[in-house]
């Protein structure tokens, strides 16, 4: 079992995790692995990655996750679609949506059964 990565900081267009600066949205898995967010899953439906689609929700979800922390961007532009919200409720996953700078604090204080999705621009 990997240790949960710590997020050092975010700036517009980047996020720094355990000293590594990445210039794209990320998903942090239950095992601590950091993956690039598959924005096209939401863009295909809504024309924007600012609304998280059911398809993306299914891709983000992991068996055993109790909490999903969403960094909704520097200015809080990202939201869940109603379908995605219902999906996480059915899976009994608590979802916290905060502007990315605040979501980082929530992530660093969260339990190990958390997954994260962090949007790094607006």
Commentary on this structure:
The chain starts with 6 loop residues before the first strand and ends with a strand. The longest helix is centred in the last third of the chain and has 10 residues, at 100-109. Helices cover 27% and strands 32% of the residues. It is globular, with a radius of gyration of 13 Å. Strands 5-4-10-7-9 form a five-stranded mixed sheet, with helices on both faces. A hairpin with a 2-residue loop joins strand 2 and strand 3. It has a single domain, classed as MTH938-like (Hypothetical Protein Mth938, Chain: A), CATH 3.40.1230. The chain is α/β, with parallel strands linked by helices and 122 residues long. The chain contains four helices and ten strands; from the N terminus they run βββββαβαββαβαβ. Helix 2 packs parallel to helix 3 (82-90).
């Amino acid at each position: 079992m990997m240790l949960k990565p710590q997020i050092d900081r975010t700036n517009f267009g980047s996020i720094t995790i355990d000293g590594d600066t990445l210039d794209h949205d990320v998903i942090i898995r239950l095992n601590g692995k950091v993956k690039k967010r598959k924005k096209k899953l939401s863009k295909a439906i809504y024309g924007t990655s600012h609304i998280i689609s059911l398809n993306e929700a299914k891709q983000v979800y992991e068996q055993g996750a109790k909490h999903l922390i969403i960094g909704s961007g520097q200015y809080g532009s990202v939201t869940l679609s109603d379908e995605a919200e219902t999906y996480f409720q059915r899976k009994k996953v608590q979802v916290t949506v905060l502007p990315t700078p605040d979501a980082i604090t929530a992530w660093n204080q969260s339990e190990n059964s958390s997954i994260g999705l962090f949007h790094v621009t607006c």
